[in-house]
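REQUEST ID: PR-0412
SUBMITTED BY: lab tech R.K.
PRIORITY: routine
TASK: structure prediction, single protein chain
INPUT:
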Amino acid sequence: MRMPRVLVKTSNIDLSTGQITMRQSHLWINNFNELLISACRSNMDIKFIWSGNDAKALVYYITDYVTKSTLAFHDMFALAQQGVKSIEQQRVTHSIDSAIEKSRKLVLRCYNMIASQQEVSGVQVASYLMNYDDHYTTHTFRNLFLISIENYLQGELSKARLQ
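STATUS: complete
OUTPUT:
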């Protein structure tokens, strides 16, 4: 929590780095709002993002937090091993499948073993059940098939050279 805080008499901007330092008049005041914590029922710090470095650090923190796995590697490995064992036990009774089908079943079984042990947040469940989007953009995008365009242009260029 980096308490006690460093006192800063006046707000200032470091012209060489662009870092903005805000006035801090009390050693033990944290950047939080008690009403928001109660309303959201969560641990929440409020921080104004003053500089590009702060924004990058915050984006890194949020991305790392959101994408972190709840299972350790050794736990995932043990679950994948269970999937392999269950496929091997099944192999004795059903040896008709092709190698591709066996591979598909193995990957699917291992994935299901691992995914069944992953924790899912309430927000993820609600978003899925309410059919909310998982991303938002301000623009509409179109696919651009560069190889086809390049082949077409090369063909037209070749035709033009021959004429």
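NOTES: Helices lie at 34-40, 52-67, 73-93, 99-115, 122-129, 146-162.
REVIEWED BY: pending
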